[in-house]
Design brief:
SH3 type barrels; 2 domains; five-stranded antiparallel beta sheet
């Protein structure tokens, strides 16, 4: 057997890696970064939950977050629903 006989198999393995394995690794890195951000949440942080609602964290425990979405209005959401910490200047309603 020559190298040319194994070339299609090598190309198939390369395509498999590029289309399946590499994107899966990138998704795992993104998931890990999201979990790390969620574990570092602190009261007073401005956040956006996965449904697009913005608010300030008022209370936090292991599984839930108390989110103040308007003065005096606090909703309880799952901690996993927090999608990102938001810079307060970005959400300025006066802009």
């Amino acid at each position: 057997m020559t190298f040319a006989d194994f070339l299609p198999l090598i190309l198939l393995a390369l395509v498999f890696f590029l289309l399946i394995i590499r994107p899966m690794r990138e998704r795992q890195k993104q998931y890990s970064a999201l979990r790390q951000m969620q574990s570092a949440l602190q009261p007073g942080a401005r956040v956006m939950i996965s449904s697009g609602i913005h608010g300030t964290i008022s209370t936090i425990d292991d599984e839930t977050v108390g989110l103040e979405i308007a003065p005096g209005v606090i909703v309880t959401v799952a901690r996993a629903a927090v999608a990102e910490v938001v810079d307060p200047e970005v959400i300025d309603p006066q802009a």
